[in-house]
Amino acid sequence: MPTTSFVSLVLSLFLILVTVSSAKRYEPNWASLDTRPLPAWYDESKIGIFLHWGVFSVPSYISEWFWWEWKGTKSPRAVTFMLENYKPDFTYPDFAPDFKAEFYDPNRWADIFNASGAKYVVLVAKHHEGFTNWPSKYSWNWNAMDVGPNRDLVGDLANAIRKKTDIHFGIYHSLFEWFNPLYLQDAANKYTTQDFVKSKTMPELHELVTKYEPEVVWSDGDWMVNDTYWNSTNFLAWLFNDSPVKDTVVVNDRWGSNTNCKHGSFFNCHDKFVPGQLFKHKWENCMSIDQGSWGFRRDASLSSIYSMDELISLLVRTVSLGGNLLVNVGPTSYGEIAPIYEERLRQMGEWLNINGEAIYATKPWAFQNDTVNPDVWYTSKKTSNGTVVYAILLKWLKGNVLELGTPIVSRQSSITLLGYSGSPFTFTGQATHGVQINVPTISFYNMPCQWGWVFKLENLVNQ
């Protein structure tokens, strides 16, 4: 007779085999891929950091599209800049040796991102210029190991983040390259050939995923032609079925000119996207602290930089409407995150240390924006005692009464201010809906934060 331990072992192996065989397989078509559930970590995270870094960080002028401005559209400002500052035979690849990243300390970056309160980071592994920030086998002599930094920028940051934080690591990858001859030939053939996709795009994506195991694959550069040319659905089926991150990875919606705002774990729809109302599908607002560029600009003015009032307001509105905020900074060519961007990220983290309860793992409430006070936005969270509603006030009240139009209160309701040590506030319910909250005068030194104040509403009638 077999021993009890042997029987248990056989049963365990059987259950594993049953689980593996019964796991859903996704087919390489949108009807199947769109049925994949969104991994919970992404919706709960709410905030990510975007990093645009590459050879374009050397000229650090106009934007990360500098090469296209210079040689593509031949914009006067780019052409003039090059004529006045560089020798006549200078080429864009000549910038690469100066992309040295000599002060790049991924551990310091990880500390900044951790202090910011962000829960995921998306690093540009390759932008439209084609330069890979990792030692890609498919980008000979146009990658960060062969020229410039002479190191694996992607791997170094992935390792630092995983070692020092609980932040999820992700990568951005451009499907196309402005001046790659293989891509230009495919385009000239009206995309009836796929030489660029087969020899460059897809091998790079598989290389990135298998080598670095990113939990976000943020695609871009898709807009010229539909997903069939890019072989997008075949890649995503592999990503969701067989890749090392198949259970946790999320992707955006930029996989072809026909997929935008239609297919993907989450939708970007367009840069800086904020819908006017609650959106049915999970979405993300990717924006940049420098409103004029995603990459670092040496000539950026303070007026183009988001203030903390503006940044907190955007974060609150985004989360209230069900989205995530992906906050971009452009590091310098020498590997530093400029002090103004570091300050913004650390200030965001200070705010979240007090008010993160109203942001992380929340859900949109029945109302997103208050009906009486347009400066109040709502989030909610289910607890063992019912649903808690957070009313986030973006402009501090002028008097001592905060009037809200949507919450319905009772004697059992409770209203407090996150980060404030005083007693719960008294309030007066209106006849059918709404509440007037009596807020005592709070000294500057006792205010919980400088921007965005969160009133926690418990035991509402309409929770």
Automatic annotation (TrEMBL):
Q: Which Pfam families match?
A: Alpha_L_fucos (PF01120), Fucosidase_C (PF16757)
Q: Name one GO molecular function term.
A: alpha-L-fucosidase activity
Signal peptide positions on this chain: 1-23
GO terms (BP aspect): fucose metabolic process; glycoside catabolic process
Q: Which InterPro entries match?
A: FUC_metazoa-typ, Fucosidase_C, GH, Glyco_hydro_29, Glyco_hydro_29_CS, Glyco_hydro_29_N
Domain Alpha-L-fucosidase C-terminal intervals: 368-458
**What reaction gets catalysed by this protein?**
a neolactoside IV(2)-alpha-Fuc-nLc4Cer(d18:0) + H2O = a neolactoside nLc4Cer(d18:0) + L-fucose; a neolactoside IV(2)-alpha-Fuc-nLc4Cer(d18:1(4E)) + H2O = a neolactoside nLc4Cer(d18:1(4E)) + L-fucose
Q: Which residues form the Glycoside hydrolase family 29 N-terminal domain?
A: 19-357
What EC number(s) has UniProt assigned to this enzyme? 3.2.1.51
Q: What class of enzyme is it?
A: hydrolase
A Gene Ontology cellular-component term: lysosome
Which residue positions hold the site described May be important for catalysis? 286
SMART domains under this entry? Alpha_L_fucos
Keywords in alphabetical order, please: Glycoprotein, Glycosidase, Hydrolase, Signal
Q: Which PANTHER family match?
A: ALPHA-L-FUCOSIDASE, ALPHA-L-FUCOSIDASE-RELATED
Quaternary structure, per UniProt, is: Homotetramer.
Q: What is the role of this chain?
A: Alpha-L-fucosidase is responsible for hydrolyzing the alpha-1,6-linked fucose joined to the reducing-end N-acetylglucosamine of the carbohydrate moieties of glycoproteins.
| Family, per entry | Belongs to the glycosyl hydrolase 29 family.
From the Swiss-Prot or TrEMBL record, give the protein name. Answer: alpha-L-fucosidase
